[in-house]
Design goal:
The protein is mainly alpha-helical. The protein has a single domain, classed as Helix Hairpins (Orthogonal Bundle). The structure holds adenosine-5'-triphosphate.
Length: about 130
């Protein structure tokens, strides 16, 4: 039982080490985290609904997850193919494409949710 908990504890430790490595090495990851903080502040400011929180948290989680997987793929590609290779480039482009799609979807969801709030805010104050 003790070994079981020790193993689970180590799994969390390694996962957090991965997240930390991604934040340290990837400027895009830092941008995603900053955007997520901005989204949370906006959500609190406008007191968005539970369903809207779910959509926002899901979108942010998807973008950050995609960026971490992208970093993992880049790292593996750099390890196995540090020299130029068309397939290596394709793998990196595909992983970057996945992040872009997730980020576009998150931006669209954020706009759909926050635009009406911003509009009524603007109507009240301007
Ligand atoms: N070994 C390689 N062989 C062929 N093309 C490569 C290789 N490494 C990188 N590329 C090409 O250069 C692009 C940029 O690769 P790079 O490793 O610089 O990632 P990046 O875009 O800087 O990622 P990030 O900014 O997230 O760190 C890739 O998407 C790919 O098209």
């Amino acid at each position: 039982m003790r070994t079981y908990f020790k193993k689970r504890y180590n799994s969390f430790k390694f996962a957090f080490r991965g997240i930390n490595a991604s934040i340290r090495s990837e400027p895009h990851m830092r941008l995603h985290i900053l955007s997520a903080i901005g989204v949370v502040l906006l959500g609190l400011t406008f007191d968005v609904t539970k369903v809207e929180w779910c959509l926002l948290v899901g979108s942010m989680g998807l973008v950050i997850t995609a960026e971490i997987i992208n970093t993992a793929i880049e790292t593996i590609v750099n390890l196995v193919s540090p020299e130029f290779n068309q397939m290596a480039g394709r793998a990196k482009d595909l992983a970057a494409g996945a992040v872009l799609i997730a980020a576009i979807a998150a931006a669209v969801i954020g706009t759909i949710i926050f635009f009406p709030y911003l509009l009524s805010f603007a109507k009240i104050y301007f």
